[in-house]
Amino acid sequence: MRQQSHRDARAARLRRAAFALALAGIVTLAACSKKEAAAPAPRPVVAVAVHTDGSAMAAASLPGEVQARYSTPLSFRVGGKIIERRVRLGDVVKNGQVVARLDPADAQKNAASAQAQLEAAQHSLVYAKQQLDRDQAQAKENLIAPAQLEQTTNAYASAAAQRDQAAQQAALSKDQLQYTTLMADHAGVITAEQADTGQNVSAGQAVYNLAWSGDIDVVCDVPESALAALSIGQTAKVTLAALPGRSFTARVRELSPAADPQSRTYRAKLTLDNAGPDVRLGMTADVALSAASPSDSSVNSVANSSAKSAATESGSFTVPASALFHDGTQPAVWVVRPADSAPGVGTPGVDTLELRRVTVTRYNERTIVIGQGLKDGERVVLQGVHTVTAGEKVHVIPPLHPEDFAS
């Protein structure tokens, strides 16, 4: 009986051990299945394959603006109240034409006071001269002491100096009166009005802005990537959006030696040849740079040839501005790297993202032109560039409206 009870107890222990092992296996399998289910799925991204623009000159085409070669503010040389303005915005003025006047009352009083002081000084000088002549005649006869003659001579010299001072003050007051009339010092056109009738202005405060007539410039900002292809004296072809079908020849006359601290571009000024009256100030222009002339320096020629060969080899790519990202301070784009492009990297059969630095040669309103950094056929992320990370697993989906991303 005892032996039977011992066998039953042993069997019960074996059953409990088997149950525990089975339960542990089930828990392990459940844990494995949870880990597999938690693996993230590849993230969908909007990307398209890019292709070269097929134009080597696209990177050398820059937007610009038509401006006068010289533009200066017109201001009074004295302060006062404006009582009259004779020209308005857009008026053409001639050299020496009166454009505005100040209230001359105070200046007239100062001029009259200075003139009265000059007349008094002249009378004093005449009296001192007469006294000097009398004393000199008496001194010859030894009728006066030498000290008295010295005093008379000194009084005459003092009167002469006072007369000269009064004359200079009268001339200055006369100039001050003339300065109440503002005249154009060059022929040109009024491009801005900065003060109105009845306003009190200080000396040097701008009242108008005058664009001189004569040479017309096209001003554009050159990125540093295109700087090597530009030199003083180089010719360019200029087209104006307001004058379709026409083109003008321009020559680079000035190139900034330092980049703008904000845009990191270099200001270039080109003078238009034979700009007609239909070329108006402020028109938008497109500047297509031509090859450097043979008279350019050898250093510039080598730099230009290197830049052209690099542009021909890589080509340029026009992509939407929404694709632009930044790697530190450098422009960059997200490139979709195919699963089989880098063996041993990433998950087999899954595309990943790579942050690629690029060179932007032109910024347009909705697009950018990339000169270096991309290859033909590579896929570039167009949307959500600030929400992805390097090495992230993705799968590419086309844009919902492909026409919105057309170059």
Description of the molecule:
It is a single chain. This protein has 407 residues and is α+β, with helices and mostly antiparallel strands. The protein folds into 3 domains: 104 residues, conserved putative lor/sdh protein from methanococcus maripaludis s2 fold (Beta Barrel), CATH 2.40.420.20; 107 residues, Efflux pump adaptor protein, beta barrel domain (Elongation Factor Tu (Ef-tu), domain 3); 108 residues. Helices cover 30% and strands 32% of the residues. The protein contains 4 helices and 23 strands. Strands 2-11-14-13-12-15 form a 6-stranded antiparallel beta barrel. Strand 20 and strand 21 form a beta hairpin. Helix 2 packs antiparallel against helix 3. The termini are far apart.
Task: Tell me briefly what this model is.
Keywords: Signal. 30% of the residues lie in helices and 32% in strands.
Helix-strand blueprint:
Blueprint lengths: L1 H37 L4 E7 L11 E8 L2 E5 L4 E6 L6 E2 L4 E5 L2 H36 L5 H33 L2 E3 L4 E6 L6 E2 L4 E7 L3 E8 L11 E6 L6 E9 L9 E8 L11 E6 L8 H17 L2 E4 L4 E3 L2 E8 L13 E7 L1 E5 L3 E6 L6 E3 L11 E5 L10
Parallel strand pairs: 1-23
Antiparallel strand pairs: 1-22, 2-11, 2-15, 3-10, 4-6, 4-9, 5-8, 6-7, 8-10, 11-14, 12-13, 12-15, 13-14, 16-21, 17-18, 18-19, 18-22, 19-23, 20-21
